[in-house]
Write a structure and sequence with these properties.
Elements lengths: L14 H29 L1 H13 L27 H17 L8 H28 L3 H27 L9 H12 L9 H22 L3 H24 L8 H8 L6 H7 L16 H7 L1 H13 L18 H4 L5
Helix pairs in contact: 1-2, 4-7, 4-8, 5-8, 7-8
The protein binds zinc ion (2 copies).
């Protein structure tokens, strides 16, 4: 305290005088302090303002509630590497994606190939019997028109079926459970369909075609009916292949497939890409995609969803908020290690 006093300041030993001196010292200190503040604020006005702003955004580290205990470390001790949260997430996603791509469930088995052979044979029997009937009767127009109608309606049927399994049921649903589960998985990892082997991708539909169409082949001899059934069931069976091509990269697809997609004969890549974007409730058709615009514009599926809800109290999945269990993971974020 005495260090701030002038050197020639007189101090007596009297308590009263000392007390009075203390008051003076206090007064000098106050004046000195005020003068110092004034000078600082005049000379560094910006400094004071910056100090206030920075103090308002500083976060305090919470005090330690437990005492730090330092333990002796062994000679070969290595401190833990700091964890980068982003890189950890990417690494986890990469690992997850690599597991999906190396999943043996994407490969064809001999059972898958057998079902494909069975399905293709069934469709060919329909078409062959229809053609034979047309040759015998010299009536080609009927079977050809019926085949065209089969192609057009197969797109509508693929959309209705896709809408149904996207929105209702679960993996535990009888008969359709595995298809529902597969389509939910497809929404999470859409690009894996292009890695799925041909027979693996189509065998379920080939089996359905075998069971439903083979009896018609054996019992029916009408060339018009068989023309319709052959084309319709063939398009349904191969719809998963058309779907896979819709997920392909243009430069990697066969030129003929790209030409058919561009002509609207097969579902286009851009149209199906919209199905995998919010709001996840449109472009369900996967043969030609010809019905998508009409169905989405007329809100047919939304009307059916309302009817199902008010009649049975069942909410479709598309009404729920996007769920990380079925919305798409970013391939580019997690794929590089597998390519
Ligand atoms: Zn879908
Ligand atoms: Zn898809």
């Amino acid at each position: 305290m005495s260090s701030i006093l002038p050197q020639n300041h007189a101090i007596t030993s009297s308590q009263r005088v000392l007390s009075g001196t203390s008051d003076k010292i206090g007064t000098i200190q106050k004046r000195y302090s005020q003068q110092l503040k004034t000078n600082i604020s005049r000379q560094f006005p910006l400094f004071a303002r910056v100090y206030c702003v920075s103090s308002s955004t500083t976060t305090k580290t919470p005090p330690l509630t437990e005492p730090l205990i330092l333990q002796p470390q062994p000679a070969n001790y290595e401190p833990p590497t700091p964890i980068n949260k982003t890189s950890t997430n990417t690494a986890t996603a990469t690992s997850s994606t690599r597991n999906v791509l190396n999943d043996p469930s994407l490969q064809s088995t001999w059972a898958h190939r057998a079902w494909m052979a069975s399905g293709c044979t069934t469709v060919l029997i329909s078409l062959a019997k229809s053609a034979t009937g047309a040759i015998d009767s010299q009536m080609w127009a009927g079977p050809i028109v019926a085949g065209c109608i089969g192609y057009v309606l197969s797109d509508l049927a693929s959309g209705i079926y896709h809408w149904g399994i996207d929105n209702y049921g679960s993996a535990k649903t009888p008969v359709f459970g595995s298809q529902i589960d597969a389509f939910q998985g497809h929404h999470k990892w859409p690009w894996t369909i292009t890695r799925r082997e041909f027979a693996n991708n189509l065998h379920a539909l080939a089996r359905a075609v075998t069971f439903s169409v083979l009896p018609i082949d054996l019992l029916c001899n009408n060339s018009v009916v068989l023309g319709f059934v052959g084309v319709f069931s063939g398009c349904i069976m191969f719809s998963q292949q058309f779907h896979s091509w819709a997920h392909g990269t243009k430069s990697k697809l066969p030129p003929l497939v790209v030409a058919l997609q561009d002509a609207g004969i097969l579902v286009s890549r851009s149209q199906h890409a919209a199905h995998h974007r919010p709001p996840y409730n449109n472009n369900y058709c996967i043969v030609s995609g010809a019905w998508n615009e009409y169905l989405d514009r007329s809100k047919v599926f939304e009307l059916l969803e309302m009817i199902f809800f008010f009649k049975f109290g069942v909410r479709p999945r598309s009404w729920s908020e996007p769920d990380s269990e079925w919305t798409e993971e970013n391939e580019t974020q997690s794929l590089p290690a597998s390519n």
